[in-house]
Design brief:
Length: 328
């Protein structure tokens, strides 16, 4: 099923290079499939030209290749760094002669262009998925492909079609100046115009979830967390006392105290970030790892105080943290 806005954007893409800027789930890939179908006369065998669909990750390459293969009757092949990618002119010539849509990671295309395995003028349609990676001042393979191998003076430049859910890379998406700079950079590098659809039009045909924002008090400020913190501090002081009484070497005791401090700090961090249940699981995991360490040691080291004080602290911590958690 096609929506009106998808047909309109596909029609626009037939006329000029465009970058489709639509949110996740709005059918950008479906527009790309429509475009491949409309330009199918340029890539159907025995023609030598092909469509190349670029996706920045291997899972996306596999996903998009499956979508295209299931939606059309074109010969689709995928390429990524699995060791099976063609490595010479002869192998690539065979692939180009047999395949009509080649889905690959951008590094594969960049390498193939650099070694003349693939030539830009043999690409009828070049699609960039998640094209926001293509920024003028970046060395992402998307940017390198366009800067090094594409120009408007080519006798037969490929049609460019970009897709993105956000044209802004990294932080600063809400900054209007940065937003405008990223849009301009994308358009300049891909030689394309950014196109989108009004939210009102999307809402009339797509189902969006109703969003509710609930603000929670940080866990570190809750009464239960404060209580647990005090109990853990008390257990740490008790374990420190046991450690000082059992060790007479000052340097050794200082080293062990620091180790206990790090262990305590990790548990407190888990308590504040994950709550009492998360901290309890962390304490159990720490105890299990120390038990494993002991099993790996020589028999002469089994009664080493370096683990006894940690066991004491962790057992106390588990007792404290599990006091208000229901079984199961």
């Amino acid at each position: 099923m096609c929506f009106r806005y998808q047909l309109d954007l596909c029609k626009r893409a037939l006329e000029e290079n465009i970058i489709v800027y639509l949110g996740t789930g709005c059918g950008k890939t479906h527009i790309a499939v429509l475009l491949i179908y409309e330009l199918g006369h340029l890539i159907r065998k025995p023609r030598r030209d092909v469509c190349i669909f670029l996706a920045p990750t291997v899972p996306l390459v596999l996903q998009q290749a499956t979508v295209i293969a299931n939606s059309t009757n074109f010969r689709v092949q995928s390429y990524y760094g699995d060791g099976k990618t063609p490595r010479d002119h002869e192998n690539w010539e065979t692939e180009m002669a047999e395949s009509e849509v080649l889905v690959m990671t951008p590094q594969i295309l960049l390498h193939s262009l650099q070694h003349c395995f693939i030539k830009m003028d043999s690409i009828a349609l070049l699609i960039f998925d998640e094209c926001h990676h293509a920024q003028v001042h970046k060395r992402h393979p998307y940017a390198q492909i366009m800067k090094e191998f594409y120009n408007n003076d080519m006798v037969k430049p490929p049609r460019i079609f970009g897709m993105t859910a956000s044209p802004v890379m990294g932080k600063g998406g809400s900054n209007k100046l940065n937003y405008t700079k990223c849009i301009n950079s994308l358009e300049e590098l891909l030689h394309a115009k950014v196109c989108s659809v009004d939210n009102a039009e999307l809402e009339s045909v797509l189902a969006f979830p109703d969003m509710e924002v609930h603000t929670y008090v940080p866990l570190s400020q809750s009464n239960l967390t404060v209580t647990y913190n005090k109990e853990l501090d008390r257990s740490k002081l008790e374990s420190e006392r046991i450690l000082r009484e059992s060790l007479y070497d000052f340097k050794d005791s200082q080293k062990k105290l620091k180790s206990l401090g790090r262990l305590h700090g990790n548990l407190v961090f888990c308590l504040q970030e994950l709550g009492s249940f998360g901290a309890l699981q962390a304490a159990k995991a720490f105890l299990l790892s120390f038990d494993g360490d002991v099993l790996d040691r020589k028999e002469s080291d089994m009664n080493d105080n370096s683990t006894r004080f940690k066991h004491h602290y962790l057992n106390k911590a588990i007792s404290v943290l599990s006091s208000n958690i229901l079984d199961g």
